[in-house]
From TrEMBL:
Organism (species): Umbelopsis ramanniana AG
Keywords: Hydrolase
Keyword Hydrolase: yes
InterPro entries linked: DDAH-like (IPR033199)
One GO MF term: dimethylargininase activity
Signal peptide: none
Gene3D superfamilies in alphabetical order: L-arginine/glycine Amidinotransferase, Chain A
Active site positions, chain numbering: 170 (proton donor), 269 (nucleophile)
GO biological process, one term: citrulline metabolic process
Family listed: Belongs to the DDAH family.
Name of this protein: Dimethylargininase
Amino acid sequence: MISYAICRDLPQSFSNCVTAVDLSQSAIDITLARQQHDDYVKVLKEHVENVIQVSADEDHPDCCFVEDTCVVVKDTAVVNQLGHVSRQKEIGPNAEALKQVPTLKTIVYMKDMDEEATLDGGDCMLVGDHLYVGLSARTNEQGAKVLEKAFSSSCKVVTITALKDSPTLHLKCLVTQVNEDTLVACSNPAGKELIQEIKQKSGIDYSVIFVPDSVPANILALGSDFVVIQKNFPESERILVEELTEKRGIQLKALDMSELIKADGALTCCSVLIP
Ligand code: GLY
């Protein structure tokens, strides 16, 4: 079971979030967004031993997307310098939350290690002892280097360039991990290119479950036998049920996250998991 999860409440200002979605065509329903986020937190509380829930910050509409604010590997956490300037002051209360986790021995601030470094946690995927860091509009090479230094004794940082100049927001918009051997990825050309680079650079032949839509490529594994997936993507859901539940015996819970998707948010974005 996962020992700790950090999440953060959704502010009333959420509809002012940073997003590539045209909200003039499809406005965020804030009441529904809150309900969807509450449902997510409820699932966290059912499957994680300790959930630390940080209060919302009205000055930071994207603050519920805590994943971007820090990266944790074993007993070390790096508090990031986020890639979008409007989000950089989200980190304070989340860093305080990290201090409540007894297994964390070292907490470092990216900005103190390199002022030019930027990185969003959504670009980082830890699979076994490999930490894949996707360069993107939010995450630069200096950011990846800070992680390499901070985690030098605990994992191998592998920098991924496939999405560097693409419109994809984060690495984990196209690929996430089920466990140490298995990934879920979007079957579009960008997803396939990403998987090819991950396999080639790591030398690991992961088993990959491809789904046709990008949103459900972001799954949230809460332990070895329980995975949260996105509702409303029937073909991707059918594949995930077949591959995860029927073939691997993993229990699935599908959540409707329609309003968070409008904010360019996915399942992993709303928590930081600490085994
Ligand atoms: N709305 C999430 C982000 O752009 O970081």
